[in-house]
Specification:
By secondary structure, the protein is α+β, with helices and mostly antiparallel strands. The chain contains ten helices and eleven strands. The strands form two sheets. An eight-stranded mixed beta sheet has the order 5-4-3-6-7-1-2-8. It has a three-stranded antiparallel beta sheet with strand order 10-9-11.
Length: 363
């Protein structure tokens, strides 16, 4: 640790007095006896009640031309100039922390919760765990012209020995639950199919490779049109290759941590996938292979309420309705039927109605 003079404090209560004396006498007795060298060690003797030094977050080097530094600088300036924005950010950070803690609480401690015997067929041996985050674009305002923001939606732990299709089957998206078609003529019609049962195709795009999900007979190669477009003269994009999603294990991938990749399904529903960490599997992890891919975080959304009663959750989305305050507009089932149909169930007016599934209801 270096030289410590006799003037050093003997207990924590003398630290503050000692620091002041050292600051006043840097060129005097204390500095000559080595206190100038050991002054930095005083910080390690704090009792932990002191506030952290936040000046590093507000100090930006002038000779660094990094986009991350520029964004951080503009963000801090915006918080200092706008008290409303600062309050909004602090509120978002507060609830984000609460959501992460609740997710960890629900998942429990793997070391204690899954200590029961695991069948040998599902016992995990030597493997690696990859941390993967799924990001989804969400609109922060009610206007249709609002620019969507990219936000964290889900987090997963996957094993290196698992196939890409196993992760795809675990990713939840509200668009998979949509039922296409106008139900305004007969809102009681239950003959529709979920979109995930009709449009089953999808792909991951990572490092120039399209990993297509072609497990079903009627699956389509969504990447074919993209590859044709990229192959046109003058594009300067590529080369791009294709592999089957069900034929590739995570250990076979060549990816970069922190690099955004693409997951596309339903034709045009896009999600950003980021590999955030990779490590060896150890005894504190869940030992049962059936628990993976394991959901470790799920964003909670505010439910979409009816625009009429403002009490019940939305179940219908209407276009061209003369009874709606907005176009399009959301209705609960009771208000939708009361405003758009007579007592005999006959349609009133000319409008289109689609069944709506709220993100807050997706597990």
């Amino acid at each position: 640790m270096g030289f410590v003079c006799d003037a050093m404090p003997r207990n924590g209560r003398d630290i503050t007095v000692f620091r002041k004396r050292c600051n006043r006498k840097r060129n005097g007795y204390f500095y000559r006896h080595g206190c100038g060298i050991e002054l930095g060690l005083v910080d390690t003797l704090k009792n932990g009640d002191e506030l952290p030094d936040m000046t590093l977050l507000k100090t930006f080097p002038e000779d660094v031309d990094l986009m991350t530094v520029k964004i951080q600088k503009s963000e801090m300036i915006k918080r200092e100039t706008s008290s409303h924005y600062k309050q909004f950010i602090n509120k978002k950070l507060k609830y984000k922390t609460v959501q992460e803690k609740l997710s960890k609480f629900k998942s429990g401690n793997p070391a204690n919760e899954f200590t029961q015997d695991v069948p040998s067929d599902y016992k995990i041996g030597h493997d690696v765990i990859l941390e993967i985050s799924i990001h989804t674009a969400t609109c922060m305002g009610a206007s249709v012209n609002t620019q969507p923001k990219l936000g964290l939606d889900q987090k997963f732990q996957v094993l290196g020995s698992q196939r890409l299709t196993e992760l795809r089957d675990k990713i939840s998206c509200v668009n998979d639950l949509t039922i296409s078609g106008d139900f305004s003529e007969n809102p009681d019609d239950t003959s529709g199919f979920y979109a995930k049962d009709v449009y089953r195709s999808g792909f991951f795009y990572m490092e120039g490779v399209f990993y297509n999900d072609l497990r079903e007979v009627d699956s389509r190669d969504y990447s074919s049109e993209i590859r044709k477009w990229a192959a046109e003269q003058g594009r300067g994009i590529g080369p791009m290759t294709v592999q089957g999603m069900d034929d590739v294990f995570f250990l076979d991938l060549k990816v970069r941590l922190g690099q955004p990749y693409l997951y596309l399904h339903q034709g045009n529903c896009e999600h950003i996938i980021i590999f955030t960490d990779i490590r060896l599997f150890h005894n504190d992890d869940i030992q049962d292979r059936r628990e993976y891919p394991r959901l470790t975080y799920k964003r909670t959304y505010k439910r979409s309420i009816c625009r009429v009663c403002e009490i019940h959750s939305s179940r219908w989305l209407t276009y061209g309705s003369e009874h709606a305050p907005d176009d399009p507009s959301f209705f609960c089932d009771q208000c939708f039927r009361a405003l758009h149909y007579d007592k005999d169930g006959k349609k009133l007016g000319d409008f289109k109605a689609y069944k709506y599934f709220d993100k807050q209801a997706v597990v």
